[in-house]
Amino acid sequence: MKEAIAVDSVIATRISKTPSGCSLCGHSDESTVHVLFKCPHAQPVWRLSQFNLSTDNLPDRMVPLMTFLLNNVDHSQYSMLINIMWVIWKDICKRVFEGKRTNPQVTLASALNWMITMEKAQFTLGTSFYKRPNDSDDMHVAADFHFWIDASWSHADSQGTGMAYILFDREGILVQYQLTDGQAYSPFHAELLSLKMALLNAMDKGILNCAFYTDCLDLQRVIAGKDSPESVEWRSYYDVLEVIALWKKHSAFICTHVNRGKNELADSLAKYARIRGVCTLDFTFPPFHLSVM
């Protein structure tokens, strides 16, 4: 835990005898707000940006911070601000866990590129939807909701498995996300449990028409009926049967495979859940993926 990344005190509490403080500058404040705005490693990025934010007025907690920014930042620039925060967070993760350093100019350029890419590629996928076996070739389902799911699993990692999903509506507006840690037997089993988590959440919310995006092709093929449940490893077999049984109750659910690079947000949350060993965190709009830091 000596190189743990800062977290919001609302979400995580320190275990006794665990070192505290910012992992980058050593300041006693280890909150997300400090890391993203007040830390000397983040301030050069904001000085280069178009935002003139006074760190003295920023709330200490993440949720009040997002409300503060919504009320004090021009709506047309808000998306850019969120993307800068997101890329700063990614750069911090790379610095703490991989020892990689990024200069402020590159961070700012990455944020702009990320925003443009997300705006152009929102739900514009390079792969076609895989229809369930009983769907005709000419049936096209316009999904009302979109679940992006992923899992993080390591055989050598005693911290278990991280699972996450991000839920968008048909307009690309973030509705909710959830992440949790757990135990899985394999990478496939971890991806399956992530899908199960999202599937149960959709059913609980009464969502009848939605698409699930996964970067695990084996999982997509089993759900789509292209591979039989018997083809998966035996330890995942009964979980596969359970998910398929739930799936068959909803004719307007579709599952599609996407490249891993298009699933970066869910991947980041899943890795966070595994590294931090969180319990279940469930955030409803207006949350942002940054709220879990």
Automatic annotation (TrEMBL):
Residues in Reverse transcriptase zinc-binding domain copies: 2-46
Domain RNase H type-1: 150-273
Signal sequence region: none
Gene Ontology MF terms in the entry: nucleic acid binding; RNA-DNA hybrid ribonuclease activity
CDD domains named among the record's database cross-references: RNase_H_like
Gene3D superfamilies to which the protein is assigned, alphabetical: Ribonuclease H-like superfamily/Ribonuclease H (3.30.420.10)
Name used for this protein in its record: Ribonuclease H-like superfamily protein
The organism's taxonomic lineage, starting at the top: Eukaryota, Viridiplantae, Streptophyta, Embryophyta, Tracheophyta
